[in-house]
Structures are given as structure tokens and as C-alpha cells.
Specification:
Helix 2 packs across helix 8. Strand 5 and strand 6 form a beta hairpin. The two termini are 33 Å apart. The protein has a single domain, classed as DD-peptidase/beta-lactamase superfamily (Beta-lactamase, 3-Layer(aba) Sandwich), CATH 3.40.710. The chain has 395 residues and is an alpha+beta fold. Strands 1, 2, 3, 4, 7, 15, 16 and 17 form an eight-stranded mixed β-sheet that branches. The chain contains twelve helices and 17 strands.
């Protein structure tokens, strides 16, 4: 087991400028967080990666308040297993010299955190007037007959109220034409209006954005979000240096791919070439901290502004656009009227709380070497939220 990489910072002026300040590493105290709670959090995150069947082989966490990164820590192995042995229900460990330790620079497969970037890209088009919330999808995609016949709107895609089922087996289609035909014909399986989380919402939204802008989603996100913010470690795969995910084989997975590292874990995103509205991005904890800070300041970071404050409000206030709001379970005690965030199937999550100007990013590869193999449960996400909330209250 590699040693824990941890930085509390080395001081700073603590002086805020009128412009949106960039993040800086400093102490928990100067960030307005209880240092004892933060020490507990770091120990608990490290413990998640230990033992024969850890919650995740690797975990990276960043906690910040205001412009201060108060804690950043990495523990465990970004690559620990060569494969999964279904006969013994064990992970086949790599030799010690072949394992790859997790560091603060390790990129992780973000899984559904990708949806947040798609939502930001949509908010940018709303702000520019090229997209309208209550316009029917059919106005942009008349060939998507399933959505057209049921009058699905852009708002319903962004709020997961379209009635579309959670996913389609696009990975079983023989080619791109068949995948596109399946998605175009897909109709809601329940009445639009009620909340029902679905990857298909962001896949349709991707097609809407690409149709109205004439640019692919990866270009939209790079030019509109990651490029201006200087998020140089964030992008769609392949990402050869990323933390490994799953030994994908049937029946537990939906494709026969072997150990996945650097390619997107989600089988539908993989079938779509790695760029999808619901999954496909890779990033580091620090890059995601930049996004959190940008949204907490109303859409600006350093010299860049990617959204106006009004459209940030649309993203982060109930019912939320792409972001989970209204006290989601995974936030623990950090949940509240100012909190918003999301989780990803691979073990990723982020929470930002505007009421306390606080954010936390937790990246892990819980599906390495196989989904539902290690210590199951989402308790660690809740525990991190609890610690951060107590650190805010205790200072």
C-alpha cells in the first residue's frame, strides 16, 4: 500500500479580490474548516482503500471552502488487479511492481458526473438563446419520433421528467445506424412529468446540442467549459493514465472487454465511441474542484466566465438542471437548501454547497476489478459529507 498523499498547504494571505479568485492550497483553519474533522476525514478515506476487499482500490478527495483547498488526499492503488476470478470471487492482484499508486494527478472515469458538463453546455445555449427550456425536442430533432410523439421538452430532459426508461441496450446493436435508430424511436415508458432518472435524457440532450450548434459534444465542452477554466486534465477518452475500472465480461457486465483502463466504463458510452451526454469524461479531483469553485462564484473562475449567475441558479436550484438538488441522500449532513451535486457509477461524486461556500470531490474506482465486488454500499459518500458539514459547523 502506498503512503497517503496529503497536502494541507503552507499558508497564504487569505485576502480576496473583487474578481473571482483562483483556488489556492492552504490550511483547513484558513479555509474555515475544523482541522480535526478534516484529519478524521483523511484517515477514513484512506481506510476505504485497505484490506482484501476494499470499498475501492483507490480514493482521492479534495475539500474546499471559498478559494481555499483545505484538504487534498490520495490513497490506494489506481491499478491493483489484473482480472477478476469468478470461480473464487476474488480479484487477481498484480505483482507489487506492476501496480500503480493513486495520486492527486490520477484521472478517474467520471461516469455520470459527465451529465453535469452536458447540463452546463445546455445552460450556455439557453443563455445564448439558441435553446429554449420549454421547446419540444421535436423542434430540434424531428427525426426522433419517440420523443416527438410524446411532446418531450428540453426542460424534461434536464430534470429527468421525460418518462424515458433508464437506459437502452445500445451496446448490443450491430452498428451506429442501428444504435441511432433505436434511440430515435424510443418513447417514454411512463407518463412525462414525474421524476425518473435516465441516461437517455442526456443522450437526447447531446443530440439536441449538436444539432443546434453544429458541433460535437466533446468540442462544446472543451470550448465552453474545460478550455476557458484551464481544466487541462479533463476530457473524453481514451485516457491511458486513468485509474482502472472493471474486468468487463458477461454475465456481470454488458460487454466482453476485459480489464478496462483508459476507455470509458459505461457500455453504452463505449458503444457510442466514448463521447456521450451521460458518460465518457475523465478528470482529476483538482479539475473538478475548479468547476465547483466556478459554480460557487456564479459562473466565473479567474479571468474566465462560462455562465452568468442567473443560469448558474437554474442549474443549482430546485428542481435542478442536470444537478441533483433538494437534499439528495449521498450528501449526508452536507445536504441542505444550498447543496447540489451528483454521483457516478464508477465511484465518483461531488457536492457543492452555496450556503456555506463549500465543496467536496470524492473520486474512487469502486468497480475495480468488478462491480458490486468490494465492500458494497454508498455509506462512504455520506460519511464524507457528514465530515465536511461538521467541519463547517465546528469552525
Amino acid at each position: 500500500m502506498p503512503s497517503l498523499e496529503q497536502t494541507y498547504g503552507s499558508g497564504g494571505s487569505g485576502k480576496l479580490s473583487a474578481a473571482a479568485p483562483r483556488l489556492r492550497v492552504d490550511t483547513p483553519e484558513r479555509g474555515g474548516l475544523d482541522p480535526e474533522e478534516m484529519r478524521h476525514l483523511v484517515r477514513e478515506v484512506r481506510a476505504l482503500t485497505t484490506g482484501e476487499r476494499p470499498w475501492a482500490p483507490a480514493a482521492v478527495v479534495i475539500v474546499g471552502r471559498g478559494p481555499v483547498i483545505a484538504v487534498q488526499a490520495a490513497a490506494g492503488w489506481a491499478v491493483r488487479y489484473a482480472s477478476y476470478d469468478e470461480r473464487t470471487d476474488t480479484g487477481v492482484e498484480l505483482p507489487a511492481e506492476a501496480r500503480v499508486p493513486a495520486t492527486m494527478s490520477t484521472p478517474f472515469d467520471l461516469a455520470s458526473l459527465t451529465k453535469l458538463f452536458t447540463a452546463v453546455a445546455a445552460a450556455q445555449q439557453l443563455e445564448r438563446g439558441t435553446l429554449s427550456m420549454d421547446t419540444r425536442v421535436a423542434a430540434y430533432l424531428p427525426d426522433f419520433t419517440g420523443a416527438a410523439q410524446h411532446h418531450i421538452t428540453v426542460r424534461q430532459l434536464l430534470t429527468h421528467t421525460s418518462g424515458l426508461r433508464p437506459e437502452l441496450p445500445l451496446y448490443d446493436c450491430p452498428d451506429d445506424a442501428a444504435r441511432r435508430a433505436l434511440l430515435r424511436a424510443e418513447a417514454p415508458s411512463s407518463a412525462p412529468g414525474a421524476y425518473r432518472y435516465s441516461d437517455l435524457n442526456m443522450l437526447l440532450l447531446q443530440h439536441v446540442l449538436e444539432r443546434v450548434t453544429g458541433r460535437t459534444l466533446d468540442v462544446l465542452i472543451h470550448e465552453g467549459v474545460t478550455g476557458p477554466l484551464g481544466m487541462t486534465a479533463t476530457g473524453f477518452g481514451p485516457c491511458p493514465g486513468a485509474a482502472a475500472t472493471e474486468d468487463q465480461r458477461r454475465p456481470w457486465a454488458k460487454a466482453e472487454r476485459g480489464m478496462v483502463r483508459g476507455g470509458v466504463h459505461d457500455e453504452n458510452a463505449w458503444a457510442l465511441g466514448g463521447v456521450a451526454g451521460h458518460a465518457g469524461l475523465f478528470s482529476t479531483a483538482h479539475d473538478l474542484a475548479i468547476l465547483c469553485r466556478c459554480l460557487l462564484t456564479g459562473g466565473a473562475y479567474g479571468p474566465a466566465r462560462i455562465l452568468g449567475a442567473d443560469h448558474v441558479n437554474l442549474l443549482l436550484t430546485p428542481p435542478g438542471l442536470g444537478f441533483a438538488v433538494d437534499q439528495p441522500w449521498f450528501m449526508g449532513e452536507l445536504a441542505g437548501p444550498g447543496a447540489a451535486g451528483h454521483t457516478g457509477f464508477t465511484g465518483t461524486s461531488l457536492v457543492l454547497d452555496r450556503s456555506t461556500d463549500t465543496f467536496v470531490v470524492l473520486l474512487a474506482n469502486t468497480v475495480h476489478p468488478k462491480r458490486s465486488w468490494g465492500r458494497a454500499g454508498n455509506g462512504p459518500r455520506v460519511g464524507v459529507g457528514d465530515r465536511v458539514a461538521r467541519a463547517v459547523r465546528g469552525w
